[in-house]
Amino acid sequence: MEGQKHSKKSAFRKIAEWLHLWLGLLSGIVVFIVCFTGGLWVFRYEIGAITEKHQFVVPQQKSFLPPSVLVNKAQAYFTVKGTDSAKLTGIIYGKKDRSAQLNFSFGKKGIAYLYMNPYDGRLILDKRKPDAYEMAMLLIRAGHRFLWLPQKIGSPIVGSACLIFLIIIITGLVWWYPQKWTKRTVKKSFTLKRRAGWKRLNIDLHNVFGFYASILLLFLTITGIYYTFGWFRHGMYRTLTGKVAVELKEEDPLSDTTVTPKPATTIALDHIWKYVTHRHADFGRIYFHAPQLPKDTYQTMVFFGDGTIFYNKETYFHDQATLKSLPYVDPNDKPYAEISAGERAYRMNFDIHTGQILGLPTKILAFLACMVGASLPVTGTIIWYNRKWGKKKRPSKVNLVNC
């Protein structure tokens, strides 16, 4: 119709806007908590580097001590303390500036984490309980994953809210997309009107920041739903690899329990240490898991880069008695170099979700996206309130005739 300034909205656009509004109001609180806590958790390692000084040592131009030396020094320490019942459960070596961590169990009496200098075996810290940093990170993660509710209750709520959030992001992009591209709509869609009033600024914060963060939020949300719903996880695996996911009951190979005697743990660990470091001198972190039951194996996981990346790792299994290298059982333990592009993308899920896939730059992007995601329910609710109840009532005109 000639002279009409605004074209009529299509039924699709009306439905999209209706879904965006009411699904946003329905899931707003959950989305705010999940995004805000997720943003904080992105920098858990950086925060730990500031608060956990016992995790660091002065780098030296010499090799690390082998596991046997560290374990013997730790056992001597426990003997002096009168706790000879300590049983080794694992050892972690890091980069040249990292302390070695030895994990021990006292059965029902608790556990101990000994942080030692890997160059001389000096004890740095004997930690028996989580410190303030760890408690804070556990609290943040519990909010992010379960809303501080029992897992069976909180996890489905978070997962469902994330599914709803996917619809909100998509319908938000539909709402954001101008019906007609002009110089005015381009400026309105991509920039903030800084000199506008607070209501206009709030709308721009919701629309413009929401648009810029939308792609990242889609990735973060999809990779987060993975941890709640098995059907979603299996669907993602099939989509990326073209294969059907198989749930294995037994994930690790087993040691031969008929062979005796078995070598001492310290001898076994030294053998595995030489075996693994010969293959991966450039490791970022090595975790040795000591067997606790006769059927268990020695399991070693090697991480690369700075040691915090999970998708690219090598896993080794050694028989307790023979120290023979055993083949993996779980497909997730298959060497990264031997898997397909789709399987590699599937393994990257955790590192994409936490923003650590490419180091600090992607962490910063993930943090900013999470903060924008947390702001969207707030700015969106304010927009809805202002449009429904926030309009100023015009003063009624005075009847001058009757004055």
TrEMBL record:
> Which residue spans traverse the membrane?
21-43, 157-178, 209-229, 364-385
Q: What superkingdom does the record give?
A: Bacteria
Tell me if Transmembrane is a UniProt keyword of this record.
yes
The name on file for this protein is PepSY domain-containing protein
**Does the keyword section mention Ribosomal protein?**
no
Organismal lineage: Bacteria, Pseudomonadati, Bacteroidota, Sphingobacteriia, Sphingobacteriales
Q: Which UniProt keywords apply?
A: Membrane, Transmembrane, Transmembrane helix
- Family matches, as InterPro entries: PepSY-ass_TM
